[in-house]
Amino acid sequence: MGNAIFSQVRRLFLVSLGGFLMAVNINTFVSSANLFPGGFSGVALLIQEIFQAYFGVKLPYSIVVYAFNVVPVIIGLRFIGKKFTLYSVVMIFISGLLTDIIPRYSLTNDMLLCSVFGGLLNAVAVACCLFADSSSGGTDFIAIFISERTGKSAWNYIFAFNCAVLAVAGILFGWDKALYSIIFQFTSTQAINFLYKRYAKTTLLIVTDKSDEIYAVIKRLTNHGATVFEGKGEYSGKTHKLVYTVVSSDESGKLEREIRATDGNAFINVLASKEIVGRFFKRAND
Predict the structure, then answer these.
(1) Which of 194, 201, 193 is nearest to 255 (CA)?
(2) What sign results for the dihedral spanned by CA atoms 146, 152, 154, 160?
(3) DSSP assignment of 174-221
């Protein structure tokens, strides 16, 4: 019971932090350089700019971004997970509300600095939500939906969508802002890929004399299976077992430590797996 409560409090804290950082980023780096961040946040800011420039109407950011997230939220509830979606809604609500409340402040007028550090801060905000098993809403729902179905990271596809949106922004408001926004998006996408590795796969080849104990550790920590081969070490002339398993990259570090604790003499070769074809256990979103 205590662990369950702690888990929920942790998730709520992370999505709230993510929403706060997202709002701060929009009102500092993004606003200073008039950038258009990715996803529906960028689309919402683009629509704000269009209404302000062409109709003289200042739309609240929160109303626009809430409206855009209605369909992704429905997708999340139906295909991803109810708690996952509800925590994502908390993030969307907080980031939208705080973006309208927090005053805009210029840290620097250098557009390149705003693009790079704004992209990094955006990635941290999104990663906070992903670590809470939720999302920052909008296109994140779509990216996670695709990743769940294919087992591959979809962030680069979202980057391509964002570039298309930025092309529209470039035509309407100038290519300098659009091109710097692409730098913002590229920085953010690569940082997310670095920070969040759930959909990346890692292969472990483990030479050991305790294959049963090693497999028990793999099963307990990851719920993945393993294949055991028997081989001869030519240097020692002794027979050993080779345990072959593929796990999510975010599970690899802890698993390696547990394997070393189980068999201090184990030899572990860690390989990045580009693509997995076949049955692979995927932890469901709640």
Answers:
(1) 201
(2) negative
(3) -HHHHHHHHHHHHHHHHHHHHH--TTSEEEEEEEES-HHHHHHHHHHH
Residue with tokens 């070393």: 260
pLDDT in tens, 231-262: 888 888 889 999 999 998 888 888 999 999 99
Residues composing the chain = 286
Beta carbons of 128 and 21 less than 8 angstroms apart = yes
In 3D, which of 45, 27, 275, 5 has the Cα closest to residue 150?
275
CA–CA separation, 47 and 228 (whole Å): 57
Phi-psi region of 174 (alpha: psi -120 to 50; beta: other; left: phi over 0): left
**pLDDT tens for residues 5-64?**
888 999 999 999 999 999 999 999 999 998 888 788 888 988 998 898 888 898 999 999
The two structure tokens encoding residue 205: 């080849």
Global pTM exceeds 0.85:
no
Strand order in the sheet with 201-208: 227-232, 239-248, 201-208, 267-273
Separation between Cα atoms, residue 40 and residue 33, nearest integer Å: 18
